[in-house]
C-alpha cells in the first residue's frame, strides 16, 4: 500500500512520507559528510545538523524566489531545503571546482543566491542583521522580499541579534527570526546561561509576536512558520519563532560529546524527526517497506553524489582571488 492509497489519514500520511524522505536526504547527506571528513577527503571544521532536520524540512517551500534565507555554519540542511543540488554541495565541502562556490566556501561559508540561499556565516548570529538588510532592500526594490534568518539558542545572547530584532521591529521589516533551539550553546546548556530558557518570550520586549513550536515536526513548522511568512509579507513586521529540536551529535566533528546530561540521549532518540515521522506513518497504515525506502533511496542518492564530487578535479588555487574585487 502506498501513502496515497492509504484510506485512514491518507493526506497526513502522504505529507509525512514526503517529509520523511526530505529528512532522510538531509541526514544521509550529513552522515556522508562525516564519513568524508573522518576519511580525510574533507578538511576543516565541520558542524553537522544531525537530528535537527525537521526544522529545515518544514520550512522547505515557504520561501519564494524573491525571498532570502540566511543560515548558521550548521547550514547544510538549509541549503538542501532551498533546493541546492547535493552534488554541488558535496563538491564545495570537498574543495572541488564543481562546488557551488567553486570550492572557495567550504562547509561553513557556502552560499547559493540562485537558490535564494544566501548562505552560512561562522560569526554567531551574524545572519540576523544581514537579513534585516535584505528585507530593507526588498522594501525599496519592490520585490516583496521576506528574509528568513536561522540561528541557534546561544546566538540569542549576541548583541547583533538583539540589534537586528530591535531594528526589524522598529521599522516593521519583513524578517522571520527562527531560533533552532537544540538546548546546547556549543558545549554549554542554554538553561545555565539565561534566567528564562523560554527564549521566544523575548519577542514581547521588541513588540513582535513570538512562539515556541516543535521543531521535530515538519508539519507544525510548516504551519507556524508559514503564518510568520504571511504576517511579514502583508506588512505586519517580524516574528520570532523558537523551534525546539536537538542535535544527536557533537557540536563539531571531533567533539567528544561527553557533556550530555543523564537520560538526554534516550529522550532525544524518542522525539527526533525520523522517529516521530516513522511512528506517524505506521499509525497511518503506511508499510514498513515504504518507510524503509525513504532511507535507502536517500543513501543511494548521497553515495552517488559524493562519488561524483570526489571524481571531480580539485579547485585551482590560482583562482582563489576571483570574485574578490570588482
* CATH homologous superfamily (4th level) name: Thiamin diphosphate (ThDP)-binding fold, Pyr/PP domains
Inertia-based shape = globular
Helix content: 40-55%
Please give the CATH architecture.
Answer: 3-Layer(aba) Sandwich
Largest sheet: 5 strands, parallel
SSE topology string: HHEHHHEHEEEHEHEHHH
Work out the helix count.
Answer: 11
* Class from secondary-structure proportions: alpha/beta
* Overall mean pLDDT: 94
DSSP E strands, number:
7
Q: Provide the CATH top-level class.
A: Alpha Beta
Annotated CATH topology: Rossmann fold
Query: Compute the gyration radius: what is it?
Result: 19 Å
What spatial order of strands do you see in the largest sheet?
1-2-3-7-6
Strand content: 5-15%
| Regions with little confidence, pLDDT below 50 for 5+ residues | 1-8
Total count of domains: 1
Question: How far apart lie the N and C ends?
Answer: 57 Å
Protein model, in words:
The protein has 326 residues and is α/β, with parallel strands linked by helices. The protein has one domain (8-312): Rossmann fold (3-Layer(aba) Sandwich), CATH 3.40.50. It is built from eleven helices and seven strands. The strands form two sheets. Strands 1-2-3-7-6 form a five-stranded parallel β-sheet, with helices on both faces. The chain has a two-stranded antiparallel ribbon with strand order 4-5. It is globular. The N and C termini lie far apart (57 Å). Its EC number is 1.2.4.1.
